Amino acid sequence: DWIAGPFLNTTNSYALLTLREDLNCKGAFISNEINKNQIRTIKRPENFKLLYSIYHPILMMTSRQCFFQQTVGCKKPSIEDGCMLKCEKSTSITNVKGISFTVDKQKGGYPSIYNHEQFLNIDVVNDFAHLFDEFFIDLTDIGSGSKKKPDKLQLIHHFENVLNGVHESSVQLHEIVTVSTNAQYQQGL
């Protein structure tokens, strides 16, 4: 059994049906890039699990190119065979507006650039608790850059309370995660 993850950007009922019928998928994450009205039109296939990520770092770009040669001064002239498996680095770059973006490379992965904002969408819990079977939170520090890292136990406590209908926890989460967005949920593609 497998579940189609959030990077598949599943956006409609036809994609869900194809995942279930052609690929024997048992569930899927719905894309965070579609808005409330677009989610409302989604019809779940029978015996199919729907999931939504309500908190995570926002991945902007993943590349096979090494970003560290120009940022932290990696001495290698180009990516070598061992880089992919052994290299693990993190830094940040700042644009002309003064906004810092995290550049992160994990062992076995490609370098990635993350938005300065975390995705935080609590509204979807209230709006679509009947549609989604599970809500996902990603507590990795990737993408948080130099920002103060929130207490993970406190975050989990507040997310659990949100799922149990405690409105004050929604307010607390927005106070803890000071740089966040759910603009996609409001505007969509």
Summarize the structure.
This protein has 189 residues and is an alpha/beta fold. It has helices spanning 13-23, 36-40, 68-71, 81-86, 123-128, 152-163, 167-176, 183-187, and strands spanning 3-4, 27-29, 49-62, 89-94, 100-105, 112-120, 134-137, 180-181.
Can you describe what's shown?
By secondary structure, this protein is an alpha/beta fold. The protein folds into 2 domains: 2-54 and 121-187, no CATH class; 61-115, no CATH class. The chain contains 8 helices and 8 strands, in the order βαβαβααβββαβααβα. The chain has helices spanning 13-23, 36-40, 68-71, 81-86, 123-128, 152-163, 167-176, 183-187, and strands spanning 3-4, 27-29, 49-62, 89-94, 100-105, 112-120, 134-137, 180-181. Strands 1, 2, 3, 4, 5, 6, 7 and 8 form an 8-stranded mixed sheet that branches. The chain is globular. The model has no long low-confidence stretch (mean pLDDT 90).
What would the principal axes of the Cα set say about the shape? globular
Give the helix tally: 8
N-C termini distance: 30 Å
CA gyration radius, whole angstroms:
18 Å
The secondary-structure class comes to alpha/beta
Instruction: Identify low-pLDDT runs.
Output: none
Into which percent range does the helicity of residues fall?
25-40%
Following the backbone from N to C, one meets helices and strands in this order, namely EHEHEHHEEEHEHHEH
Largest sheet: 8 strands, mixed
- How many domains would you count in the coordinates? 2
Number of strands: 8
What percent of residues are in strands? 15-25%
How would you state the average pLDDT, rounded? 90
